[in-house]
Design goal:
Thiol Ester Dehydrase, Chain A; 8 strands; 6-stranded antiparallel β-sheet; about 160 residues
Amino acid sequence: MTTPAIELTEELQQAVSGFFQRIPFNRMLGIQLGELSPQRVLMHLPMKPELIGNFVHGILHGGVISALLDVAGGAMALIGAFDKHQHLSSAERMARLSKLGTIDLRIDYLRPGRGQHFTASAVLLRSGNKVAVVRSELHSDDGTLVAVGTGTYLCG
């Protein structure tokens, strides 16, 4: 599949960043924005005691893994959807994009989430008029692939 020809304008950068920062859950988890581009989204998560799911081994909670992959996927879907609404005024475009939501999310947990820092990446597989499909991966600080996800997002 081909990557859509999206230009990451200042408006788009601010839209994605603003949507992300307005979600209290993202701040509570400690998710940090990394790269935002038409090709991919990167987000980072430092490990902290509140995120542990297996207290004996200090492993990242599966719900946190799922949430991080969903947030990265949603940001990528937002970038993909932005291009579909270029013909609208800025206010109309933001009103449509504010309806972005997860329709379906599948997570495959491949290995325990061990480490002090995790990186989620997301790439756009398809962006249609109403729905976007995104593939996401989560790596630990040593490069281990911890989980992969495929998300479908309503974006218009």
